[in-house]
């Protein structure tokens, strides 16, 4: 364990929604929901104004509409989020060479590798405050919550304690005081199933968990999970900040308008996705050892199943075979019985070299679908939220579309809230706007 609070966890607040509010002045201070906003979509991010109404990430958009119908429902603009992400990571990498990205808007930073006079609480607090100010400045006003602690585990908890716009430092030595009263759910890897098992054993808080022997925990939740819980309940976490974790996976996934229940059909979808993943690996000269399938069930439970090969592959056939086998396990376990709304395949544990293919020659027979596959749900041409430009009115964003009409609000991050106009969907004066 470290003697200093030198692990920083930074997490932008309501990231996608905050970028939308920055770029769409009329939405500032208002409920905004970003996600797949068609009939079967899922909420990616809700602004804090929408959270007041109970809207949460991973909830169905239908439910979000029922809770907060007056929110702006927008499709994500990943290019805009990616640009902000690059700006923020630029600041972090200037601070320390050890930055571990967790997602576009979240990272660990090892301050012990930064060029600082010391790592005392006052110093690291000052640094975190400066970083938050820099983030706000380069991103045009976005707020980040930051946690500082002696480990990744505690730093991540800390950044969440005073969200949004928070800065929490957990002084070394006080980790357990913070942790003990918390629900076991605060521990990474403790999801609904583990929580339920622990609850039945009378274990609710981390303090309860701390009383349980490692043998008993292993009996309750299995060997690796049990040992892990035993350590984390004592705030023992010596995982390093790992900068090389960046972009080490290639994956493809699709959401479907109708729940999938047919196993051959799903196998063929996975096979097609495996072909796409393999093509991308080859294009980038990559190969990977771990094959993962992602399955989102009708009730939004998301299941990931992985298997690791002895050596890396970039072969569609090998990836598809393993993906189908993993799906088979879910079928056997009865997990897919209620229907599947999203399927995906990914390859991680990437190496930037190609090893000889352990599975021999790749065959085509695996990768040619012979069933008519359903089309994944698509976003409309004029998707709510997208950037557009009009010959006379200039830049704006799609407020909504339907019945041959698209409605646009003309405003950008640099203008005040602007006027709304409607056009025919095929009006040649109106075009999608893409930054060159
Ligand atoms: Mg965030």
Task: Walk me through the structure.
The radius of gyration is 24 Å and the shape is globular. The chain folds into four domains: 1-171, Reverse transcriptase/Diguanylate cyclase domain (Alpha-Beta Plaits, 2-Layer Sandwich); 177-232, Orthogonal Bundle (DNA polymerase, domain 1); 249-351, DNA polymerase, Y-family, little finger domain (Dna Ligase, domain 1, 2-Layer Sandwich); 387-432. Strand 10 and strand 11 (302-313) form a beta hairpin. It is built from 13 helices and 17 strands. With 436 residues, the chain is an alpha+beta fold. The chain has helices at residues 15-23, 48-51, 61-67, 78-95, 121-139, 152-161, 175-179, 192-200, 206-210, 214-221, 223-232, 263-283, 316-332, and strands at residues 7-12, 32-35, 43-46, 72-74, 99-103, 106-110, 144-149, 167-169, 249-260, 287-297, 302-313, 340-351, 387-390, 394-402, 405-409, 420-424, 430-432. The strands form four sheets. Strands 5-6-1-7-8 form a five-stranded mixed β-sheet. A five-stranded antiparallel β-sheet has the order 16-15-14-13-17, with no helix packed on it. Strands 9-12-10-11 form a four-stranded antiparallel β-sheet, with helices on one face. Bound molecules: magnesium ion. Magnesium ion binds next to strand 1. InterPro entries: DNA/RNA_pol_sf, DNA_pol_Y-fam_lit_finger_sf, DNA_pol_Y-fam_little_finger, DNA_polymerase-Y, DNApol_IV, IMS_HHH_1, Rev_trsase/Diguanyl_cyclase, UmuC. Belongs to the DNA polymerase type-Y family. It is found in: Cytoplasm. This is DNA polymerase IV.
């Amino acid at each position: 364990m470290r003697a200093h609070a030198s692990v920083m966890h930074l997490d932008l607040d309501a990231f996608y929604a905050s970028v939308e509010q920055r770029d769409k002045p009329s939405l500032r201070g208002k409920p905004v929901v970003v996600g797949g906003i068609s009939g079967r979509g899922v909420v990616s991010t809700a602004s804090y104004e929408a959270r007041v109404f109970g809207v949460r990430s991973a909830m169905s958009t239908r439910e979000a509409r029922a809770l907060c119908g007056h929110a702006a429902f927008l499709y994500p603009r990943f290019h805009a989020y990616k640009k902000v992400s690059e700006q923020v990571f630029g600041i972090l990498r200037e601070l320390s060479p050890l930055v571990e990205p967790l997602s576009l808007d979240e990272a660990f930073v090892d301050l012990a590798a930064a060029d600082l006079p010391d790592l005392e609480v006052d110093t690291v607090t000052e640094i975190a405050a400066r970083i938050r100010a820099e983030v706000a400045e380069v991103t045009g006003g976005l707020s980040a919550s930051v946690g500082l602690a002696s480990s990744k585990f505690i730093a991540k908890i800390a950044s969440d304690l005073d969200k949004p716009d928070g800065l929490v430092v957990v002084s070394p030595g006080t980790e357990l005081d913070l942790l003990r009263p918390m629900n076991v759910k605060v521990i990474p890897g403790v999801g609904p199933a583990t929580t339920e098992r622990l609850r039945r054993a009378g274990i609710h808080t981390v303090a309860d968990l701390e009383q349980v022997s490692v043998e008993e925990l292993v009996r309750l939740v299995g060997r690796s999970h049990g040992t892990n819980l035993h350590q984390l309940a004592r705030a023992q976490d010596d995982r390093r900040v790992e900068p090389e974790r960046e972009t080490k996976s290639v994956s493809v996934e699709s959401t479907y308008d109708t729940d999938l229940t047919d196993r051959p059909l799903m196998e063929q979808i996975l096979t097609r996705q495996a072909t796409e993943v393999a093509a991308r690996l080859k294009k980038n000269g990559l190969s990977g050892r771990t094959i993962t399938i992602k399955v989102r069930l009708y009730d939004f439970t998301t299941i990931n199943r992985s298997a690791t090969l002895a050596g890396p592959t970039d072969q569609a056939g090998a990836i598809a075979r393993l993906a189908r086998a993993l799906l088979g396990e879910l079928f056997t376990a009865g997990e897919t019985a209620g229907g599947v709304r999203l399927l995906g395949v990914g390859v991680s544990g990437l190496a930037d070299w190609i090893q000889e293919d352990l599975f021999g020659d790749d065959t085509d027979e695996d990768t040619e679908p012979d069933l008519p596959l359903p089309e994944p749900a698509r976003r409309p041409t004029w998707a709510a939220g997208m950037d557009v430009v009009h010959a006379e009115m200039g830049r704006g964003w799609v407020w909504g579309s339907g019945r041959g009409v698209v409605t646009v609000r003309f405003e950008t991050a640099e203008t005040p809230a602007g006027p709304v106009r409607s056009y025919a969907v095929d009006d040649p004066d109106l075009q999608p706007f893409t930054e060159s």
